[in-house]
From TrEMBL:
Alphabetized UniProt keyword annotations: Signal
Signal peptide from the UniProt entry: 1-19
Boundaries of every Glycoside hydrolase 123-like N-terminal domain copy: 621-802
The name this protein goes by in its record: Glycoside hydrolase 123-like N-terminal domain-containing protein
Matching Pfam families: GH123_N, Laminin_G_3
Length: 1270
């Protein structure tokens, strides 16, 4: 049996991350039993068909969803074609719908001023009249009646994606996950007749496919490519002509001058159809029996050639040359060669076909030469006269650089036949040669177009060339040749050349679009010092390797301060992307300028990059400094104490009784646990818990206490080394010891909470969705293997955060349940399944994690007075002051001020101080400029892995000040360095505050500085660098408070509360991760339920002031520019005041310039009331003994109160979409304030009477009031 394989470029592209075996097609329908012509075979008619004038027929088709579509993740894709309706009809047209009891997936063209495609995914049922689903959408201006277009929609647990014609158009984070499986799905919609805005007309739908995974962009592109040629598209494809040669080429791997009839170049990238850096030469001739093709292409550093067997489909993964030939009889022949001679050939997808071609490969002087002769007979033609033209394409894949290049302007797919070049067979015609083009990507044109008269040529050809660039077109004409040399071409353009016969028949035509915007033929990707050496490694990428058979040269020079060259080395790269090592041991320590030059074969210097560089001693000057390291307890904490088995620190007490773990944790005089924390093991079917045998205090100081506990768990010896610090941080290193193999069926850490304490959870979800809010009745779990290992359980007053750096020695078959919060009858269990399947332990097994009860410190006595704001409103805290940042350094987070700017910076800072404003200069905890000299020397020790060393050194679209790389604070050397420059800047510039962006821990597996760990399968996994990040934050806190006890430190940590780090913050800035959701919703109404706000954005359970960022204006700037004017208008009052009210009833703060006009009146009311440490907060969830809302009764209509001496401030908040009149009852005796006959709305001045302790107050939807007793 013949092996049938349909092979084209899309297989190659899909290799980047797509696994054929991992993807299952759950459902496929080509509708071949239907009657209408489809894009392939037949198609299904859907929509509204008029049988008679007043009678409609709704066309659709239904299917059982069982095993055909998955709720958890998947992809739906299909082709659509409007038959008799106009895309701008402003009506609904439904294409696909899947339905379950409480689940819905809908793909449709929807009503709106724009021609838009919508994708809805989520719960079917509404809550309080509000839809719960998520929507992605995109304008589809190119949709026309009678044209085919490709639609694809994918989903998983995090986001949905919408694709149109192979391109990703929109991504939307999922707001709510549907909770029931799909039961049915419908092509054409479930009940289109029930839609009031359903449009008249028919839509054809074809090639429906449903997959069990969200297909990646590359695979979506593949699906689009399959039938894209049949969709309407105009392509200016190349035209070439050849006559019969008397002396056919010799297939020997040596291509002589004018040996072939035709020679050309001008390869295009398949992604953008523009001139690409990687250029090859193509040669074509013919005899009466054969077609001859030659290719000359650069080798690169090494040709990938792993496939050796003929017709092995994997040959496309090597460096390869592909030839596609399509005759008018639609015989599509395909040839793929690698450099060692392996051949794949097929006709119409049949790889069993043998073309019997003669071909040869040869590597010569850095070039790969392929020559082949194909009998016309084997192409399905009796001779070259059987057809007077062919369509073809010649392609070159560069495996190392990932460049896919084509002579024809194909899109994404070498087999894009609509764009194939045309080859005409002529009797009398001159040979034609494109000898060179130059490098259009860099704006250099070296063009030579030549024809050669022969004895068979009747009349000379008319040659014409025109180049369009800079909004100008220059035209050149000739008969025998055209020669053009130009430099400095900029912008997007096209080089077009043609040859016309005497009667103006086009015999030769090529159009080569290009972009000379980047203009750099050499990219400096990165350079850095190899650790523990004096070797500098340069990562470079060239756009051109050679010209006319000669290679470019790269010259690297080091020049000292006097401009003298102290080191120079030349290289001859033979690959487009490469690394060069230079040993600079011979040059002394000091400052240099590195010059990197690209020299073309004729000696011209075509590019130069200059970079400042400092050679440091191997022992860098900042190493081992003690800045920010102290044996004194910083304010506001108190010295640690210990009595017996109890540890005391500010506001908390940790008790150890009979186990090696705490038996009780007490915070703010409230017991957190319902019983002791236990390590439990199941051994031989029996459950054992840890039992302590001995306890020893290893270290005792005001800042740290260490205990060593030993005990047994069954037959296994167990010990715990506990390190506790003054801010309440505890780190546990648990060791299990067994001299003989012991089979452990399960090992778990069990933390039982009192029910009254464990009402809220915060699992650290970036989008503040999953696990942030009220603990669900059926509990919740977290995958610690794939998510950051940190979580918090507590209430609005106290709680406990668990964290770990890694899961080393955890044995998990079900990592999705590695952590679980389980409500029980009398308590709540936080359980960590360290070993969840039978495992044999022998020797020493170590497990480490941390615990930290909250709050971590008392709120500052002045915290209520903090007023962070943008300009235009009264403030005393100014975040991220641009004048200071820009004067300090032009590099990202490099706070090393230029000496000439120090006086200017101090003047700016002092101006803020005079206005009573703390100036918090911008910094970052986890990123750094790749251009600072210290990073170039030490970056390999600092950088986060995986992560870039640099981002586009020569990128002109992004200023250097905005470019950064990720850093890992687990590097001790980086902590020393950053503390050194921060301390110097703070003191030299007299800074009284720092604002840290990226202010949280991250994942890293840089083994050089100790990150990365191996799981039980030997896989390298990332470390959660919370310990190093904590140490850096602690040192910064100490150095700042030592310099100025009243200084402020803010951490921007949106969505990631990590108290081991944020203990050392005065302000937490949160909420930026909601930007896209705000853009989608145009409000916070459904984004932040009250319980979510309590679990994330309040200060009291953390001990740190909290600020939520308003994302209204920013969401418009980034995602919905048409909303920018809305947020500046009076219409924005309602959603903006809603956010202010949310913050107010939770005793937190909000900030951003867009809130200015609405925030100032609230702050004025607070100032009038007296907003200081004397204020007592009476929160809506715990104030019923003082006041209550009698009606209406709703969990979303609440009232918080603030009491100061004999004054009372009431803040009722209506978090519903209905206007309401609130009936509020006050108990003046319990409030211990004088009875009042009225309350006053301090925002609008209205007076409301108090009758028999009752107040009636009208309150609009999503609004709040500030009422004070008079």
């Amino acid at each position: 049996m013949k092996k049938i394989i349909i092979l084209s470029m899309y297989f190659l592209i899909s290799s980047n991350g797509f696994s054929q075996t991992a993807t299952e097609t759950l459902f496929a329908e080509s509708f071949n039993n239907e009657l209408s012509e489809g894009i392939e075979g037949k198609a299904l008619l859907t929509g509204i068909d008029f049988i008679e004038e007043d009678k409609k027929q709704f066309l659709k088709k239904s299917y059982n969803a069982n095993n055909n579509i998955a709720l958890e993740k998947g992809t739906v894709c299909f082709w659509i074609k409007p038959i008799d309706w106009k895309p701008d009809d402003r009506k609904v047209h439904i294409f696909f719908e899947a339905i379950g009891n409480n689940s819905r997936l809908l793909i449709y063209k929807y009503v709106g001023k724009n021609n838009s495609l919508g994708f809805i995914f989520g719960p079917l049922k509404e809550i309080e009249g509000k839809s719960q689903w998520t929507m992605a959408n995109t304008p589809i201006e190119n949709l026309q009646t009678g044209t085919w277009h490709f639609v694809a929609c994918s989903w998983d647990q995090n986001e949905i994606r919408l694709y149109w014609d192979g391109d990703l158009k929109d991504v939307a984070p999922i707001k709510n996950i549907p909770d029931t499986p799909f039961t049915s799905f419908y092509v054409g919609g479930r009940n289109p007749e029930k839609w009031t805005e359903i449009g008249k007309g028919i839509t054809l739908i074809d090639e429906l496919r449903i997959y069990n995974v969200p297909l990646p962009l590359e695979r979506i592109g593949e699906e689009f490519q399959k039938f894209k040629d049949k969709a309407s598209r105009d392509v200016e494809y190349p035209i070439f002509s050849v006559g019969i040669t008397k002396n056919p080429p010799v297939i020997d791997g040596n291509i002589g001058e004018k040996e072939y009839f035709l020679e050309t170049t001008g390869f295009l990238g398949i992604w953008d159809q523009r001139f690409c850096s990687e250029q090859s030469l193509v040669y074509i001739s013919r005899s009466s029996e054969k077609l001859y093709i030659g290719v000359r292409t650069p080798v690169g550093e090494k040709l990938s050639a792993n496939v050796k067997n003929r017709d092995d489909v994997n040959v496309w993964q090597d460096d390869s040359i592909e030839v596609h030939i399509n005759s008018r009889k639609n015989n599509i022949s395909q040839f793929i060669f690698n450099s060692i001679g392996t051949l794949y050939d097929s006709k119409n997808g049949d790889s069993g076909w043998n073309a019997n071609i003669n071909y040869i490969n040869k590597i010569d002087n850095g070039f790969w030469i392929l020559e082949m002769a194909i009998p016309f007979e084997n192409l399905g033609l009796l001779s070259d006269e059987d057809e007077n033209n062919l369509r073809f394409n010649i392609c070159r894949t560069f495996a190392s650089s990932g460049a896919y290049t084509s002579l024809s302007p194909v899109r994404r797919n070498y087999g894009d036949t609509v764009a194939f070049s045309e080859l005409k067979f002529m009797d009398k015609i001159s040979p034609m040669y494109i000898k060179s083009i130059g490098n259009l990507s860099t704006g250099y044109l070296d063009f030579y177009f030549q024809t050669v008269a022969t004895d068979t040529t009747e009349n000379p050809l008319k040659l014409r060339t025109w180049i369009t660039a800079n909004n100008q077109t220059d035209t050149y004409d000739g008969t025998s040749h055209i020669l053009i040399k130009r430099e400095g071409i900029k912008g997007n353009g096209a080089l077009t050349f043609e040859a016309l016969s005497e009667n103006s028949e086009r015999l030769f035509f090529q159009k080569i679009p290009f972009s000379a915007q980047a203009g750099n033929p050499l990219k400096i990707l990165y350079f850095y010092r190899l650790p523990n050496s004096e070797i500098i490694r340069f990562g470079l990428q060239q756009t051109m390797l050679s010209e006319a058979g000669k290679y470019y040269i790269v010259r690297i020079s080091f020049l000292d301060k006097d401009g003298k060259t102290v080191f120079e080395k030349e290289f001859q790269p033979n690959n487009f992307k490469y690394e060069l090592d230079t040993d600079i041991t011979s040059i002394p320590d000091g400052e240099y300028a590195i010059h990197i030059n690209l020299i073309c074969p004729d000696g011209r210097k075509v590019y130069e990059h200059i970079e400042d560089f400092v050679k440091y001693p191997l022992c860098v000057p900042w190493a081992g400094n003690k800045i920010g390291i102290s044996n004194k307890v910083p304010s506001p904490w108190t010295p640690m104490e210990t009595t017996g088995n109890t540890i005391y620190c500010w506001g908390r007490k940790y008790v150890f009784d009979d186990g090696i773990m705490p038996s009780q944790l007490i915070s703010q005089n409230e017991s957190i646990l319902s019983g002791p924390i236990r390590i439990k093991a199941i051994i031989d079917g029996k459950e054992f818990t840890d039992k302590r045998k001995s306890s020893l205090c290893d270290e005792k100081s005001p800042t740290k206490i260490k205990f060593h506990e030993e005990g047994m768990i069954g037959t296994i010896a167990i010990s715990s080394d506990i390190s506790a610090e003054y801010d309440g941080f505890m780190w546990f290193v648990i060791n299990l010891h067994t001299s003989t193999p012991v089979k452990v069926e399960k090992l778990s850490l069990n933390i039982p909470f009192k029910k009254s304490v464990a009402t809220l959870t915060n699992l650290g979800d970036f989008y503040v969705k999953k696990g942030t809010g009220i603990l669900p009745a059926n509990g919740i779990s977290k995958n610690l293997k794939t998510e950051e290992p940190v979580l918090w359980v507590g209430n609005e007053k106290v709680g406990l955060q668990w964290f770990a750096e890694n899961l080393k020695n955890w044995i998990l078959k079900k990592p999705e349940s590695s952590a679980g919060i389980i409500p029980r009858e009398n308590d709540v269990l936080l359980q960590f399944n360290v070993i969840d399947s039978p495992t044999v332990l022998e020797g020493k097994t170590e497990i480490a994690f941390g615990l930290m009860p909250t709050p971590v410190k008392p709120l500052s006595s002045s915290w209520r007075k903090l007023r962070p704001s943008g300009t235009g409103v009264k403030r005393n805290v100014a975040f991220t002051i641009r004048p200071v940042e820009s004067l300090i350094t032009p590099l990202f987070n490099y706070i090393v001020p230029a000496p000439k700017n120090i006086i200017k910076i101090k003047d700016v800072v002092n101006d803020y101080k005079k206005k009573g404003e703390n100036c918090l200069s911008y910094s970052s905890l986890a990123v750094m400029s790749p251009y600072c000299p210290e990073f170039l020397w030490q970056g390999e020790l600092w950088k986060k892995v995986p992560g870039a060393r640099a981002i586009q050194w020569d990128n002109k679209n992004i200023g250097r000040e905005n470019l950064f790389v990720w850093i890992c604070p687990n590097s001790p050397d980086y902590r020393d360095f950053y503390c050194s420059i921060t301390d110097n800047a703070v003191r030299e510039l007299e800074l009284d505050g720092l604002y840290f962006d990226f202010g949280e821990s991250h994942m890293c597996q840089n083994e050089i500085h100790g990150c990365g760990w191996k799981d039980n399968e030997g896989k390298l996994c990332p470390t959660f660098n919370i310990l190093g990040t904590r140490e850096l934050a602690k040192r910064i806190y100490i150095l700042m408070k030592t310099y100025n006890p009243n200084s402020l430190i803010a951490y921007h940590m949106s969505g990631k509360i990590q108290m081991p780090v944020h203990s050392f913050a005065d302000i937490l800035v949160d909420g930026e991760t909601l930007t896209r959701l705000v853009a989608d919703e145009s409000s916070y109404y459904n984004l932040l339920p009250l319980d979510t706000y309590r679990a994330e954005f309040m200060p009291h359970q953390w001990g740190v002031a909290t600020v939520i960022l308003s994302e209204f204006a920013r969401s418009a700037e980034l995602f919905k520019k048409d909303m920018k004017s809305f947020w500046r208008s009076d219409k924005a009052e309602k959603p903006m005041n809603h956010l202010i009210g949310l913050a107010l009833i939770h005793d937190s703060k909000c900030f951003m310039g867009d809130l200015t006009r609405y925030l100032q009146p609230v702050r004025d009311a607070q100032d009038k009331f007296g907003w200081d440490e004397k204020v007592e907060f009476l929160p809506y969830w715990n104030n019923s003994e003082y006041l209550k809302i009698l009606s209406p009764i709703s969990t979303n209509i609440v009232i918080s109160a603030f009491k100061r001496d004999a004054k009372l401030m009431l803040v009722p908040f209506n978090n519903t979409d209905t206007d309401n009149e609130l009936t509020i009852k006050l108990d003046f005796d319990m409030l211990n304030i004088p009875k009042s006959s009225v309350v006053k709305d301090t925002l609008d001045g209205k007076i409301y009477p108090v009758n028999h302790h009752i107040i009636k107050v009208p309150l609009k939807s999503r609004a709040f009031k500030i009422l004070t007793t008079e």
